[in-house]
Amino acid sequence: MTLYENIFIGRQDLSQQQIEALGVGLGLYISQNGGTVVRSEYCGLRKLAYPIKKNHKGHYYIIQMKATGAIVAELNRNMKINEDIIRHLIVKVDAFEDKENLISQAKTYGDDLGTKDVGYRAANSKIDMIKEENSEEKAETEE
Question: Residue 2 and residue 27: Cα distance in Å, rounded?
Answer without folding.
Answer: 16
